[in-house]
Design a protein that fits this description.
Helices cover about 45% and strands about 15% of the residues. With about 475 residues, the chain is an alpha/beta fold. The protein folds into 3 domains: about 130 residues, Gyrase A, domain 2 (2-Layer Sandwich); about 130 residues, Four Helix Bundle (Hemerythrin (Met), subunit A); about 180 residues, 3-Layer(aba) Sandwich (Rossmann fold). The chain has a 7-stranded mixed sheet, covered by helices on one side. It binds guanosine-5'-triphosphate (GTP) and magnesium ion. Magnesium ion binds next to helix 10.
């Protein structure tokens, strides 16, 4: 059974304000029996109100009674009539007092009277299936709710209001036009006619490729704004990477110990520094090992380095003999032309007496800094800075943080710029792009028209999956499972 016919007859309910008790909570109910079910649990104060007949956008004050006629709560109910509601169906929002007990009881009253508990994202899924928004907009609802900075809010808002969808729609229209011309030719294949000038077609395909490509390249920025700028903390074992992660996150997130090889898996979390969201990633220390789990951990470290936008290379300043090996081996993994590198000389509290008045940059570390600068240059690296720090004593971290923020000062979506921030969209766009490239090459090489048309169709399919012009229950299931219940 398709999703749409599956939902047509059910009425769902859930608390839409999360589990935290606030002054009030909002319980949402949506579906064809909304008013019927509501009339069984809610008594409007105004006796003349006929609940089954109230028009949309009505606000009613009244009472929720338990089955034994005792009063559970007094509430405010907003009524929405299809199609003028979030889901496009008849629906209501019950604002009750924010006790978890009241919410639980209210939900069980509603379900006792015929409503079903909503699954994750069910309300937004209905909004999509009823044509209130496309899939990309539905996903943006999720992003908007979880946005924590102005930048991530801007990206989500732009997508929710349809900026991204409009761009994709224009692209689809173009491609559809090209493909219909080609397919028209196929209908007349006996006569060997060409309706479309090949040069012109190629130009149109080129334009579409450029357009898709610019969306693909916006992903780096979109992803950084939404999920935080990825910052990998890497280096040999025991250099203090986990200590630094904890200091940056201001919480004991990772286990710290003097045993080399403590961190096996990557550990990451986000931190908002001066309005910029960073995703700090602690990694397994790099050393030669034959231990399987540790080897897998180190593989993950290399993977995280590739994904990072900023790399923090940790060196133990009490062990200068280890500098060269660390720098040399990491230099092979870092792409310094694309990634910003900071080299951190940790444990500077141990090997020097802090002499600076601000106690952030001990002067006697200058020699070490120079030594590291030379070694980095030998390895072909150009670090943005080499900083003596003490992760444990939290020295020099304010300098590091302000440099991190400074390095991202251009990280802001300008105006109405459309950014791709969703991994699903990113990979669909890449598929679309590759198919178009194939079509473009094929066109140049005078490959039979039907094969060119097929590649363009494939590209159209991939773009269509983003907005949900083509969608399967599986795609929908994967998207909405990440939503919270009540959204
Ligand atoms: N004196 C001093 N000790 C530090 C500093 N930072 C870390 N340490 C100590 O160094 C040891 C290793 O710290 P971790 O943070 O676990 O090091 P790591 O790099 O995560 O190590 P692995 O996970 O094994 O790769 C611990 O005993 C820390 O207390 C520092 O700034 N000064
Ligand atoms: Mg560690």
């Amino acid at each position: 059974m398709s999703e749409l016919s599956n939902i047509e007859n059910t009425t769902i309910c859930a608390c839409s304000t999360g589990n935290n008790s606030g002054a009030i909570a909002v319980v949402r109910i949506s579906g064809p029996q909304t008013l019927e079910i509501l009339s069984k649990v809610f008594t409007p104060k105004r006796e003349d109100v006929k609940l089954l007949e109230v028009p949309g956008y009505t606000l009613l004050y009244g009472y929720i009674y338990r089955q034994d006629s005792t009063l559970l709560d007094d509430v405010l109910v907003s009524i929405f009539r299809e199609p003028h509601s979030y889901t496009g169906e008849d629906s209501a929002e019950i604002s009750c007092h924010g006790s978890n007990y009241i919410v639980r009881e209210l939900l069980s009253l509603l379900t006792d009277n015929g409503a079903k508990y909503a699954g994750p994202g069910d309300f937004t899924k209905r909004a999509f299936l009823n044509g209130k928004m496309d899939l990309a907009q539905a996903e943006a609802v999720c992003d908007l709710i979880s946005s924590e900075t102005k930048a991530s809010h801007d990206v989500a808002m732009q997508q929710m209001r349809g900026g991204f969808s409009k761009e994709l729609e224009a692209m689809r229209t173009n491609l559809l036009q090209i493909v219909s011309l080609l397919e028209l030719e196929l209908d007349f294949s006996e006569e060997e006619v060409q309706f479309a000038d090949r040069k012109e077609l190629q130009k149109l395909l080129d334009d579409s490729c450029t357009q898709i490509n610019s969306l693909i390249s916006s992903f780096k920025l979109g992803n950084a704004l939404k999920n935080g700028v990825p910052v990998a903390i890497v280096g040999a074992t025991n250099t203090g990477k986990s200590t630094l992660l904890n200091a940056l996150l201001r919480e004991d997130r990772a286990i710290v110990s003097s045993i080399a090889g403590t961190t096996r898996d990557t550990i990451e979390d986000v931190m908002n520094l001066d309005g910029v969201l960073f995703r700090f990633i602690d990694t397994a220390g790099i050393r030669a090992t034959l231990e399987q789990i540790e080897m897998m951990g180190i593989e993950r470290t290399f993977y995280k380095i590739r994904q990072a936008q900023i790399v923090l290379m940790m060196l133990d300043s009490t062990n200068p003999d280890g500098f060269q090996e660390s720098i040399q081996s990491l230099s092979k993994k870092i792409n310094n032309s694309e990634q910003t590198l900071f080299i951190l000389l940790n444990k500077c509290d141990k090997n020097t007496i802090l002499s600076h008045a601000d106690k952030t940059a001990p002067a006697s570390n200058e020699d070490l800094v120079e030594q590291v600068r030379a070694l980095a240059a030998d390895a072909g690296l150009t670090p943005a800075a080499i900083l003596p720090i003490s992760a444990k004593q939290k020295l020099g971290l304010d300098v590091l943080e302000s440099m991190l923020v400074e390095s991202q000062k251009d990280l802001n979506a300008s105006g109405n710029m459309v950014l791709v921030s969703n991994m699903r969209h990113y990979s669909a766009l890449k598929d679309a792009y590759n198919a178009l490239l194939r079509a473009n090459v094929a066109l140049g090489e005078h490959v039979p028209t039907d094969l060119v048309a097929q590649d363009i169709r494939e590209s159209l399919y991939s773009i269509g999956t983003i907005v949900g012009a083509v969608s399967t229950d599986e795609i929908l299931g994967n998207i909405f499972k990440n939503f919270c219940i009540g959204k």
